[in-house]
User: What shape does this take?
Amino acid sequence: METVVSGIRPTGYLHLGNYFGAVRSFVKMQDAYNCLFFIADWHSLTTHPRPEQIRQSARNILTEYLACGIDPEKATIYIQSDVPEVLELYLYFNMNIYLGELERVTTFKEKVRKQPDNVNAGLLTYPTLMAADILLHRAQKVPVGKDQEPNMEMARRCARRFNNIYGVDFFTEPESYHFSEKAVKVPGLDGSGKMGKSEGNAIYLKDDEATIRKKVMKAVTDAGPTVPDSPKPEPIQNLFDMMQIVSTPDTWNHFNDLYNTCNIRYGDMKKQLAQDINIFCAPIRERILELQADTQTLDRIARQGAERARESARQTISEVRRIIGFRS
Ligand code: TRP
Assistant: This one.
């Protein structure tokens, strides 16, 4: 069975965009592949050297993954810093990759622009740590967004370089697994772009009914169409897109007809949308709350995930040591 690895940095809570963009696909993938889903807490130090409550943030994502239906009996879910074996592979890759290659990675150049006062070595070697995350389990497939392509290119290079230097055929080059056809782009609530791109445009899986309603009612709209069948401006299209995701086709058609006949009242539409978002989120939210209260179960799942990941990691590290010439 092919192995899949995916990581997420614990920068906040999961929102509907994360759910429809990735997490929903993870739930399907766990039946078809040997999946390892981990929380990249070490990676977050590249941008947040003094993270607040890093352990808690990691556990929040773990909780939300479980609440969304990732099953710890089918997939391995773990926190990166619970599996220190990755650091050894990170070290070897850093010996094999050249400074110039890392400096040319476009995501690095972006980060340099974003945080010119903290261009740390970890930022530069972010791609080799990510390569180590993936190749630690000798994964073939990595579900990532298009923005991760430069990092994936580097992961393939690490695999190739290692094989070339030591004259082996040990690592396979991991491929990006884009579920973009199946992934639904969830728009944000502030009129443009996708959910999560900017502060305050996201609905989180943990949001309660009142919060959802407040956020949806504040979503950007306009004065409404005056000419029948006019095209929809982006903020309006976004509301309709959101409705397509969470509401029934009848509901969507109803408001679409009202729009096309210039009879739409956005207040009514938003009320309906908030209600349907809440219907969708409520069961996930309940499981989040249940799990949050059950710290023993969470501890056990985190421990079990780490153990399984370490087992897989140790095998790789032991072979890597043997290949390079260290005793394993
Ligand atoms: N760089 C990824 C991101 O932003 C997170 C990540 C770290 C990752 N290690 C990984 C993703 C390994 C897939 C595989 O969002």
